[in-house]
Amino acid sequence: xxxxxxxxxxxxxxxxxxxxxxxxxxxxxxxxxxxxxxxxxxxxxxxxxxxxxxxxxxxxxxxxxxxxxxxxxxxxxxxxxxxxxxxxxxxxxxxxxxxxxxxxxxxxxxxxxxxxxxxxxxxxxxxxxxxxxxxxxxxxxxxxxxxxxxxxxxxxxxxxxxxxxxxxxxxxxxxxxxxxxxxxxxxxxxxxxxxx
Length: 196
What we know:
Layout: H1 2-21, H2 24-31, E1 55-57, E2 72-74, E3 81-88, E4 96-102, E5 112-119, E6 126-133, E7 145-151, E8 186-192
Parallel strand pairs: 2-8
Antiparallel strand pairs: 1-3, 3-6, 4-5, 4-7, 7-8
């Protein structure tokens, strides 16, 4: 009877040994105490969008009567000429502000702001800003021109620009953005034909 009991014990030991040898997963679970900790995926915020400067694209030029940039445009009297600026930015969420300035640079008594226009792009990389101007917009300019400046930070409001008490004119350029940094993205046209 005792021999039979010992044989039964050895059979059980052999079964347990073969079971753990053939099942490495179970062996690992037994050795670790049977506790398994779930590990979830690692989540990270998407990388911040790299800020890109705005830029100009060529206007239609000729198809709608608007001139290409950096050309001399001859005006006559009160007949307005349409000017088109096509602006773009790789950052689609940026609001682009187009500033139209007459007789600038340099800043003189004849320099003046014509308009600040926010360009609605509707998710597109580019958008248009237009102005129809005649000779009266360039009165007093020794070398009349039209400059268009684009910023994705907005511009300093005129009321916040320091004034020279002697001349009562701004000493700050028209191309400073809301962070008071000079904006270098600008182009324009030379104006001819107007009598000052």
